[in-house]
Specification:
Elements: E1 2-4, E2 7-14, H1 19-27, E3 35-46, H2 48-63, E4 67-71, H3 75-84, E5 90-92
Parallel strand pairs: 2-3, 3-4, 4-5
Antiparallel strand pairs: 1-2
Helix pairs in contact: 1-2
Length: 105
């Protein structure tokens, strides 16, 4: 997991295993303009426990007045965000050029 310039890069499987690393990356970074972007472009899987890790991050960020955005979500991740309604708290943003099918409708 990489963090810098207000961006946390996520890769591989997004499960409960990322909870501690995700929080450490968040706590150790600058939050320009009161926002943090989560870059999912190198991630290939998001399960319910990964959603739970994101909710924990959201709760921390919102308590500090920081908004979260999710970039590079694949279609399955967008579906998971919508199904769990996390898209109302962590806002899906831009998509990578090689994944035009993930654009929000």
């Amino acid at each position: 997991m990489a963090a810098g310039d207000g961006v946390i890069g996520l890769s591989g499987r997004i499960t409960s295993r990322i909870t501690v690393d995700l929080m450490e990356a968040y706590l150790g970074m600058d939050k320009p303009r009161g926002e943090v972007r989560l870059d999912f472009s190198a991630a290939d899987h998001l399960d319910v426990s990964g959603i739970n890790a994101l909710v924990k991050l959201y709760l921390r960020a919102s308590s500090e007045g920081v908004r979260l955005f999710a970039d590079g979500l694949n279609p399955e991740m967008i579906d998971a965000f919508r199904a769990t309604r996390i898209d109302g708290t962590i806002v899906p943003g831009s998509v990578p050029a090689d994944r035009p099918e993930t654009a929000r409708s």
